[in-house]
From TrEMBL:
It catalyses: 6-carboxy-5,6,7,8-tetrahydropterin + H(+) = 7-carboxy-7-carbaguanine + NH4(+). One of its GO terms (molecular function) is 4 iron, 4 sulfur cluster binding. Its EC number is 4.3.99.3. S-adenosyl-L-methionine binds at residues 49-51, 94, 135-137, 175-178. Homodimer. InterPro entries: 7-CO-7-deazaguanine_synth-like (IPR024924), Aldolase_TIM (IPR013785), QueE_Cx14CxxC (IPR030977), rSAM (IPR007197), rSAM_sf (IPR058240). Mg(2+) binds at residue 52. [4Fe-4S] cluster binds at residues 32, 47, 50. Its cofactor is S-adenosyl-L-methionine; [4Fe-4S] cluster; Mg(2+). Belongs to the radical SAM superfamily. 7-carboxy-7-deazaguanine synthase family. Pathway: Purine metabolism; 7-cyano-7-deazaguanine biosynthesis. This is 7-carboxy-7-deazaguanine synthase. Signal peptide: none annotated.
Amino acid sequence: MASYAVKEAFLTLQGEGRRAGRRAVFVRFAGCNLWTGREKDRATAVCRFCDTDFVGTDGDGGGRFADAAALAAHASALWGVAEGARPYVVLTGGEPLLQVDAALIDALHDAGFEIAIESNGTIAAPAGIDWVCISPKAGSAVVQTRGDELKLVWPQPGIDIDALERWDFANFLVQPMDDADYPANRDAAVALAMTRPLWRLTLQTHKMLGLR
Ligand SMILES: C[S@@+](CC[C@H](N)C(=O)[O-])C[C@H]1O[C@@H](n2cnc3c(N)ncnc32)[C@H](O)[C@@H]1O
Ligand SMILES: Nc1nc2[nH]cc(C(=O)O)c2c(=O)[nH]1
Ligand code: SF4
Ligand SMILES: [Mg+2]
Protein backbone atom coordinates (compact mmCIF):
# COMPACT_ATOMS: atom_id res chain seq x y z
CA MET A 1 0.00 0.00 0.00
CA ALA A 2 1.28 3.44 -0.88
CA SER A 3 2.39 5.84 1.83
CA TYR A 4 2.57 9.59 1.34
CA ALA A 5 5.21 12.13 2.40
CA VAL A 6 3.57 15.50 3.08
CA LYS A 7 5.57 18.64 3.86
CA GLU A 8 2.60 20.58 5.26
CA ALA A 9 -1.19 20.74 5.10
CA PHE A 10 -3.36 23.71 5.94
CA LEU A 11 -6.69 25.47 5.40
CA THR A 12 -6.59 28.73 3.44
CA LEU A 13 -8.05 30.45 0.39
CA GLN A 14 -6.80 29.42 -3.04
CA GLY A 15 -4.65 32.43 -3.91
CA GLU A 16 -4.04 31.86 -7.63
CA GLY A 17 -5.79 31.19 -10.90
CA ARG A 18 -9.42 30.99 -11.98
CA ARG A 19 -10.46 29.61 -8.61
CA ALA A 20 -8.74 32.27 -6.52
CA GLY A 21 -10.70 33.15 -3.39
CA ARG A 22 -12.09 29.68 -2.80
CA ARG A 23 -11.72 28.06 0.62
CA ALA A 24 -9.41 25.09 0.26
CA VAL A 25 -7.36 22.56 2.17
CA PHE A 26 -3.84 22.55 0.71
CA VAL A 27 -1.81 19.34 0.88
CA ARG A 28 1.80 20.06 -0.03
CA PHE A 29 3.65 16.86 -0.95
CA ALA A 30 7.37 16.58 -0.25
CA GLY A 31 9.86 16.38 -3.13
CA CYS A 32 10.07 17.55 -6.73
CA ASN A 33 11.56 16.15 -9.92
CA LEU A 34 12.75 19.58 -11.21
CA TRP A 35 14.70 20.77 -8.13
CA THR A 36 16.08 19.09 -4.97
CA GLY A 37 14.73 21.96 -2.88
CA ARG A 38 18.24 22.72 -1.59
CA GLU A 39 19.52 26.25 -2.19
CA LYS A 40 22.96 24.93 -3.21
CA ASP A 41 21.31 23.18 -6.19
CA ARG A 42 19.01 26.01 -7.28
CA ALA A 43 21.34 27.51 -9.91
CA THR A 44 21.70 24.17 -11.70
CA ALA A 45 18.11 22.97 -11.36
CA VAL A 46 15.64 22.75 -14.26
CA CYS A 47 13.23 24.93 -12.25
CA ARG A 48 15.14 27.78 -10.56
CA PHE A 49 12.47 30.23 -9.37
CA CYS A 50 10.54 28.11 -6.88
CA ASP A 51 9.00 30.08 -4.00
CA THR A 52 8.30 27.03 -1.83
CA ASP A 53 9.98 24.83 0.80
CA PHE A 54 8.95 21.27 0.02
CA VAL A 55 11.83 19.37 1.69
CA GLY A 56 10.93 16.88 4.40
CA THR A 57 7.72 16.28 6.33
CA ASP A 58 8.27 18.68 9.22
CA GLY A 59 5.88 21.52 8.35
CA ASP A 60 2.57 22.37 10.03
CA GLY A 61 0.15 19.55 9.33
CA GLY A 62 2.83 17.54 7.56
CA GLY A 63 4.01 14.01 8.16
CA ARG A 64 4.13 10.53 6.71
CA PHE A 65 0.71 9.07 6.09
CA ALA A 66 0.57 5.29 6.02
CA ASP A 67 -2.25 5.06 3.50
CA ALA A 68 -4.78 7.05 1.48
CA ALA A 69 -7.50 6.81 4.11
CA ALA A 70 -5.23 8.36 6.73
CA LEU A 71 -4.35 11.31 4.49
CA ALA A 72 -8.00 11.84 3.48
CA ALA A 73 -9.02 11.85 7.15
CA HIS A 74 -6.35 14.46 7.85
CA ALA A 75 -7.68 16.66 5.02
CA SER A 76 -11.24 16.27 6.33
CA ALA A 77 -10.18 17.34 9.81
CA LEU A 78 -8.55 20.46 8.35
CA TRP A 79 -11.70 21.30 6.36
CA GLY A 80 -13.81 20.98 9.52
CA VAL A 81 -17.58 21.14 9.55
CA ALA A 82 -18.10 24.09 7.16
CA GLU A 83 -21.51 23.88 5.45
CA GLY A 84 -22.77 25.22 2.16
CA ALA A 85 -20.23 24.01 -0.37
CA ARG A 86 -18.41 20.85 -1.29
CA PRO A 87 -15.11 20.40 0.58
CA TYR A 88 -12.21 21.37 -1.68
CA VAL A 89 -8.64 20.08 -1.56
CA VAL A 90 -5.68 21.35 -3.59
CA LEU A 91 -2.84 18.84 -4.04
CA THR A 92 0.46 20.66 -4.53
CA GLY A 93 4.08 20.44 -3.58
CA GLY A 94 6.79 19.98 -4.57
CA GLU A 95 5.47 17.88 -7.40
CA PRO A 96 2.31 16.12 -6.28
CA LEU A 97 2.17 13.73 -9.23
CA LEU A 98 5.23 11.93 -7.86
CA GLN A 99 2.88 10.58 -5.17
CA VAL A 100 -0.79 11.10 -6.03
CA ASP A 101 -2.40 7.84 -7.13
CA ALA A 102 -5.82 6.30 -7.72
CA ALA A 103 -6.11 5.16 -4.11
CA LEU A 104 -5.71 8.73 -2.83
CA ILE A 105 -8.14 10.16 -5.40
CA ASP A 106 -10.73 7.55 -4.41
CA ALA A 107 -10.22 8.17 -0.69
CA LEU A 108 -10.56 11.97 -1.07
CA HIS A 109 -13.70 11.54 -3.19
CA ASP A 110 -15.10 9.09 -0.62
CA ALA A 111 -14.50 11.80 2.01
CA GLY A 112 -16.60 14.18 -0.12
CA PHE A 113 -13.81 16.32 -1.57
CA GLU A 114 -13.63 18.00 -4.94
CA ILE A 115 -9.96 17.59 -5.91
CA ALA A 116 -7.66 20.10 -7.60
CA ILE A 117 -3.99 19.67 -8.43
CA GLU A 118 -1.11 22.07 -9.09
CA SER A 119 1.53 20.30 -11.21
CA ASN A 120 4.49 21.05 -13.43
CA GLY A 121 2.99 18.72 -16.05
CA THR A 122 6.01 16.45 -16.53
CA ILE A 123 4.08 13.43 -15.19
CA ALA A 124 0.67 12.44 -16.57
CA ALA A 125 -2.22 13.07 -14.19
CA PRO A 126 -4.24 10.00 -13.19
CA ALA A 127 -7.95 9.98 -14.03
CA GLY A 128 -10.49 11.49 -11.67
CA ILE A 129 -8.89 14.78 -10.62
CA ASP A 130 -11.60 17.44 -10.85
CA TRP A 131 -9.44 20.50 -11.62
CA VAL A 132 -6.04 20.12 -13.29
CA CYS A 133 -3.74 23.17 -13.20
CA ILE A 134 -0.46 22.80 -15.08
CA SER A 135 2.39 25.29 -14.76
CA PRO A 136 5.03 24.60 -17.43
CA LYS A 137 8.73 25.11 -16.76
CA ALA A 138 11.20 26.06 -19.52
CA GLY A 139 13.59 23.20 -20.22
CA SER A 140 11.24 20.48 -18.99
CA ALA A 141 9.24 18.02 -21.11
CA VAL A 142 5.54 18.55 -20.42
CA VAL A 143 3.39 15.47 -21.08
CA GLN A 144 0.16 16.70 -19.47
CA THR A 145 -0.89 19.13 -22.24
CA ARG A 146 -4.60 19.17 -21.39
CA GLY A 147 -6.51 20.29 -18.37
CA ASP A 148 -8.59 23.02 -16.80
CA GLU A 149 -5.97 25.72 -16.33
CA LEU A 150 -2.54 26.44 -17.79
CA LYS A 151 -0.72 28.80 -15.42
CA LEU A 152 2.39 30.32 -16.98
CA VAL A 153 4.85 31.97 -14.60
CA TRP A 154 6.31 34.90 -16.51
CA PRO A 155 8.79 35.87 -17.82
CA GLN A 156 10.56 32.56 -18.54
CA PRO A 157 13.19 32.62 -21.29
CA GLY A 158 12.86 29.55 -23.50
CA ILE A 159 9.06 29.28 -23.36
CA ASP A 160 7.32 29.11 -26.76
CA ILE A 161 3.97 30.84 -26.20
CA ASP A 162 2.64 29.89 -29.64
CA ALA A 163 3.19 26.23 -28.78
CA LEU A 164 1.47 26.59 -25.39
CA GLU A 165 -1.57 28.15 -27.06
CA ARG A 166 -2.07 24.92 -29.05
CA TRP A 167 -2.42 22.89 -25.84
CA ASP A 168 -5.88 21.79 -24.74
CA PHE A 169 -6.72 23.93 -21.70
CA ALA A 170 -9.98 25.65 -20.77
CA ASN A 171 -8.18 28.64 -19.23
CA PHE A 172 -4.82 30.31 -19.94
CA LEU A 173 -3.36 32.31 -17.04
CA VAL A 174 -0.19 34.36 -16.75
CA GLN A 175 1.34 34.91 -13.29
CA PRO A 176 4.24 37.29 -12.60
CA MET A 177 7.38 35.54 -11.33
CA ASP A 178 7.94 36.45 -7.68
CA ASP A 179 11.63 37.25 -7.41
CA ALA A 180 13.88 40.29 -7.03
CA ASP A 181 12.62 41.63 -10.39
CA TYR A 182 8.94 41.48 -9.40
CA PRO A 183 7.96 44.99 -10.64
CA ALA A 184 9.35 44.28 -14.11
CA ASN A 185 7.88 40.77 -14.10
CA ARG A 186 4.45 42.16 -13.22
CA ASP A 187 4.68 44.64 -16.08
CA ALA A 188 5.72 41.85 -18.45
CA ALA A 189 2.77 39.71 -17.37
CA VAL A 190 0.36 42.62 -17.86
CA ALA A 191 1.87 43.22 -21.30
CA LEU A 192 1.37 39.57 -22.26
CA ALA A 193 -2.30 39.67 -21.26
CA MET A 194 -2.76 42.95 -23.14
CA THR A 195 -1.18 41.69 -26.37
CA ARG A 196 -2.52 38.11 -26.34
CA PRO A 197 -6.11 38.19 -25.03
CA LEU A 198 -6.29 34.41 -24.70
CA TRP A 199 -4.28 34.94 -21.52
CA ARG A 200 -5.66 36.35 -18.26
CA LEU A 201 -3.57 37.89 -15.52
CA THR A 202 -3.51 36.10 -12.16
CA LEU A 203 -1.74 37.40 -9.06
CA GLN A 204 -0.64 35.50 -5.96
CA THR A 205 -3.33 37.06 -3.79
CA HIS A 206 -2.47 35.00 -0.68
CA LYS A 207 0.90 36.77 -0.53
CA MET A 208 -0.80 40.20 -0.61
CA LEU A 209 -3.22 39.11 2.11
CA GLY A 210 -0.68 37.48 4.39
CA LEU A 211 -2.35 34.08 3.98
CA ARG A 212 -0.45 30.84 3.51
C1 LIG B 1 5.37 25.53 -5.77
S1 LIG B 1 4.52 24.99 -7.21
C2 LIG B 1 4.05 23.32 -6.78
C3 LIG B 1 3.30 22.58 -7.88
C4 LIG B 1 4.13 22.13 -9.08
N1 LIG B 1 5.43 21.66 -8.74
C5 LIG B 1 4.23 23.26 -10.10
O1 LIG B 1 5.32 23.79 -10.28
O2 LIG B 1 3.20 23.58 -10.69
C6 LIG B 1 2.94 25.87 -7.11
C7 LIG B 1 2.74 27.00 -8.09
O3 LIG B 1 3.59 28.08 -7.74
C8 LIG B 1 4.16 28.59 -8.91
N2 LIG B 1 5.39 29.29 -8.56
C9 LIG B 1 6.48 28.74 -8.00
N3 LIG B 1 7.43 29.66 -7.78
C10 LIG B 1 6.91 30.84 -8.19
C11 LIG B 1 7.41 32.18 -8.21
N4 LIG B 1 8.64 32.48 -7.79
N5 LIG B 1 6.60 33.14 -8.69
C12 LIG B 1 5.35 32.85 -9.14
N6 LIG B 1 4.83 31.61 -9.15
C13 LIG B 1 5.60 30.61 -8.67
C14 LIG B 1 4.36 27.35 -9.76
O4 LIG B 1 4.61 27.64 -11.12
C15 LIG B 1 3.06 26.64 -9.53
O5 LIG B 1 2.06 27.15 -10.37
N1 LIG C 1 -3.09 30.35 -0.66
C1 LIG C 1 -2.32 29.67 -1.51
N2 LIG C 1 -2.74 29.49 -2.78
C2 LIG C 1 -1.96 28.74 -3.61
N3 LIG C 1 -2.22 28.40 -4.89
C3 LIG C 1 -1.22 27.59 -5.32
C4 LIG C 1 -0.30 27.43 -4.30
C5 LIG C 1 0.81 26.46 -4.36
O1 LIG C 1 1.83 26.65 -3.71
O2 LIG C 1 0.63 25.46 -5.07
C6 LIG C 1 -0.74 28.18 -3.21
C7 LIG C 1 -0.29 28.43 -1.87
O3 LIG C 1 0.81 28.04 -1.44
N4 LIG C 1 -1.12 29.16 -1.08
S1 SF4 D 1 8.37 22.39 -10.38
FE1 SF4 D 1 7.05 23.39 -8.85
S2 SF4 D 1 7.71 22.59 -6.83
FE2 SF4 D 1 9.24 21.97 -8.35
S3 SF4 D 1 10.81 23.52 -8.11
FE3 SF4 D 1 9.44 24.21 -9.77
S4 SF4 D 1 7.82 25.48 -8.82
FE4 SF4 D 1 8.92 24.39 -7.19
MG1 LIG E 1 2.59 28.58 -3.27
